[in-house]
Amino acid sequence: MTSTLDKPVKAPTFQGVSAKRKLTNNVATVLVSASVLIALVPLVWVLYSVISKGFAAVTSSVWFTNSQAGTTAFSPGGGVYHAVMGTLLQGLVCSLISIPVGVMVAVYLVEYGGGTRLGRVTTFMVDILTGVPSIVAALFIYALWVATLGFERSGFAVSLALVLLMIPVIVRATEEMLRIVPMDLREASYALGVPKWKTIVRIVIPTALSGIVTGIMLALARVMGETAPLLILVGYAASINFDMFGGFMGSLPGMMYDQISAGAGANPIPTDRLWGAALTLVLLIAILNVAARLVAKIFSPKKV
């Protein structure tokens, strides 16, 4: 004999729904769907423009292996190797500073500093930094690093300016991910006698790792496209420079700005280089996002 508990549960049936409620539901569905389509139009348009106009340059045999050294606005050839290396180096140094600082600040705000005066002050300062324009961050680093301390303009100074832009984004994203970790996991760990710091390191952070990595990649994608720190804190070099503490350094945003100055739009050669550098930057960010998703999937908690 089959009991009622063994029978499959059927979907609830709603009867007598008024025509007004059905109309309201349909209108809301249409508005939400239309909003999604409207949001997708500029995104698809931008991607189509960048891919269609930059594809020819990116598919060149020397694009990723050569620099722009020795080329002019009227001489074809050259590649983007120097700009990719400069962008990666600046982003790497920025990430090495920003990620641990941002994650630890978020851990403090969620796990330790809730309701304290220092926690409120930190939250207020993070909110202010979130809205700071990139040119203000660049001017601050110039005044401190170059004018006051006497160091020369360099790629490292650019990374310091990018740190100011990256940290608040990481703090906010990490903070939100840590807050959605169920409190039951923490309490179960405490009940087993696990110290708080080990609970955070072994349970809380791994549970929220996927969202934390996504937030970090969004922050990195934002700073990798900034131009103001490059213009103020380091000059553009068409050749390869791996020295983060001296000399001009190439970068993808810097290359795009240089090609605009060289007559992009009127001259087809710098125009192709401009769109090629833009597509390269988009591809670089896409690759980093895919890699971050894979890392988050590997290290996230496994289902039993």
TrEMBL record:
Q: Which GO terms describe its cellular component?
A: plasma membrane
Task: Name the InterPro entries on file.
Answer: MetI-like (IPR000515), MetI-like_sf (IPR035906), Phosphate_PstA (IPR005672), Phosphate_transprt_permease (IPR051408)
Chain ranges of the ABC transmembrane type-1 domain:
84-296
Q: Annotated Gene Ontology MF terms?
A: phosphate transmembrane transporter activity
**Pfam family name, one:** BPD_transp_1
Q: Which UniProt keywords apply?
A: Cell membrane, Membrane, Phosphate transport, Transmembrane, Transmembrane helix, Transport
Q: Give the main location.
A: membrane
Where found in the cell? Answer: Cell membrane
Question: Can you tell which superkingdom this protein's organism belongs to?
Answer: Bacteria
Q: GO biological process: any one?
A: phosphate ion transmembrane transport
Q: Where are the transmembrane segments?
A: 27-51, 88-110, 122-148, 154-173, 203-224, 230-253, 274-296
List the CDD domains: TM_PBP2
Topologically, how does it sit relative to the membrane?
Answer: Multi-pass membrane protein
Family per UniProt?
Answer: Belongs to the binding-protein-dependent transport system permease family. CysTW subfamily.
* Role description: Part of the binding-protein-dependent transport system for phosphate; probably responsible for the translocation of the substrate across the membrane.
Name of the molecule in the record: Phosphate transport system permease protein PstA
* UniProt source species: Mycobacterium yunnanensis
Which lineage ranks, top first, belong to the organism behind this chain? Bacteria, Bacillati, Actinomycetota, Actinomycetes, Mycobacteriales
